[in-house]
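for the recovery benchmark. tokens below, seq after
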């Protein structure tokens, strides 16, 4: 079954788009939607097997894959060099790769702290800078960074909160410094999304992951497709005058966190959008 995108066919025809972490979760779904809209795709991830599986699912022998640790500058340079030798251009970049684990600040080792900051902030900087210098500075383009909501702090994952705050601040700064080159830089901030990434959390986190929907005004988890839609919009010409924003896709959770005097009644009025035929509900929510 083809991806059921709400965007017009051929939207990205003739464009080459890089998706990091494109072999699973949000990156995988986004890659499928972009491919359905005519993009040539380059998937970059840490595990060759995973991104090769993503390529097989896309059913397109032309899709480029490259395994790299995006925390390492030399590997980033090699990956982008490979993309340009294959595709000759980079019109869009989705910085989706990342990783974190639940832990209180007092229990996080320096190695754990550095790993999460490198995964979720430094990698975004390294890949974006390399793409900018090697192609977009002379030709323009669009960059979308996939983050997490850090603004009220992130108790239980303070290393991730710090990294994501830096990632969004990088987005704001790059959107100004690179505007003269015709480059737009934006962020998407997912809320609690029913993605395969939830299954990587330890069992002690499962209760929170299952029951958080009670705090969300829309009273449900989001879908991978709902994040992919936001990314596609920001990459597209429809967002030609949009740069330097952090777009929350969280069912209203962030704003509800500031309210002490109102409780959203239970309801089933928010209908999810899912255009991805290969999507499966994560086991932790099943």
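predicted aa per position
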């Amino acid at each position: 079954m083809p991806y059921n995108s709400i965007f017009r066919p051929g939207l990205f025809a003739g464009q080459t788009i890089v998706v990091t972490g494109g072999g699973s979760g949000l990156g995988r779904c986004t890659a499928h939607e972009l491919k359905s809209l005519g993009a040539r795709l380059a998937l970059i991830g840490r595990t060759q097997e995973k991104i090769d599986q993503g390529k097989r699912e896309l059913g397109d022998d032309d899709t480029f894959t490259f395994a790299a640790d995006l925390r390492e500058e030399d590997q980033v340079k090699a990956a982008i060099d490979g993309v340009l030798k294959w595709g000759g251009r980079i019109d869009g970049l989705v910085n989706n790769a990342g990783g974190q684990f639940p832990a209180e600040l007092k229990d996080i080792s320096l190695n754990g702290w550095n790993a999460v900051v490198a995964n979720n902030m430094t990698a975004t900087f390294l890949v974006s800078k390399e793409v900018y210098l090697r192609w977009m500075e002379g030709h323009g383009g669009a960059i979308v960074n996939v983050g997490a909501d850090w603004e009220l702090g992130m108790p239980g994952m303070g290393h991730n909160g710090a990294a994501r705050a830096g990632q969004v601040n990088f987005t704001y700064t790059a959107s100004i410094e690179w505007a003269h080159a015709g480059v737009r830089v934006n962020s998407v901030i997912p809320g609690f999304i029913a993605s395969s990434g939830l299954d990587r959390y330890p069992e002690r986190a499962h209760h929170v992951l299952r029951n958080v929907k009670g705090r969300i005004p829309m009273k449900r988890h989001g879908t991978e497709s709902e994040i992919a839609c936001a990314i596609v919009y920001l990459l597209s010409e429809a967002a030609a005058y949009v740069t330097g924003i952090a777009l929350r896709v969280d069912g209203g959770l962030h704003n509800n966190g500031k309210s002490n005097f109102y409780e959203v009644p239970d309801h089933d009025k928010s209908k999810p959008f899912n255009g991805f035929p290969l999507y499966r509900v994560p086991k932790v929510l099943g």
